[in-house]
Amino acid sequence: MAQPRPVTRIQRKNRAAILDAALDVFSLKGFDGATVDQIASSAGLSKPNLLYYFPSKEAIYTALLGELLDTWLDPLRALDPGGDPLAEILAYVQRKLEMSRDFPRESRLFANEIIQGAPRIAGELSGTLRDLVDDTAKVIDLWADEGRIARVNPHHLVFSIWSLTQHYADFDVQVRAVLGEGVTDPFPEAEAYLRTMFTRMLTPG
């Protein structure tokens, strides 16, 4: 049986360039508004060259979403059931906020997919993602049972962390417009605010 040819450095470079360019185009225009021609032009490649690596726009988009979902789940996977509950939850908030700061295109791409009804990752949402959140909810409930944090609905706690951190990526223009020209970086104050809010919410009474 013939062995597959090893991927060359140029092939890795071109594939990475295509995915990076596609991330720009998809995060700005959405799936329906993006075209292969736009992605090829942004990547600095011809359309036939791009299609050598990915046979369609759908294939590029699916590859991006697959990589993105893993990246999105990693901060929740890092939550340590054996750690200090408040410290672990605050660290998760910080990691999610850092992702909004460092990966705004990825956040917008993910948000666009969800808004469209998640036609390409619905199975992952109801499978891998739900299983991970359910496992995390059990840990949060256990911490509350032990009196180490205040009793909260664990699923809605996770939802609130998502919404309050990803807002700074998905609505960056709105955030900066409201804060005004004097604010060049909203993230330090956002982190301080969220730490205070979740600390007050989760500290046992």
TrEMBL record:
The keyword DNA-binding applies. SUPFAM superfamilies: Homeodomain-like, Tetracyclin repressor-like, C-terminal domain. Residues 12-72 form the HTH tetR-type domain. PROSITE patterns: HTH_TETR_2. InterPro entries: Homeodomain-like_sf, HTH-type_TetR-like_transc_reg, HTH_TetR, Tet_transcr_reg_TetR-rel_C_sf, Tscrpt_reg_YcdC_C. The keyword DNA-binding applies. Residues 35-54 bind DNA. Keywords: DNA-binding. It comes from the Bacteria. This is TetR family transcriptional regulator. The lineage of its organism: Bacteria, Pseudomonadati, Pseudomonadota, Alphaproteobacteria, Rhodobacterales.
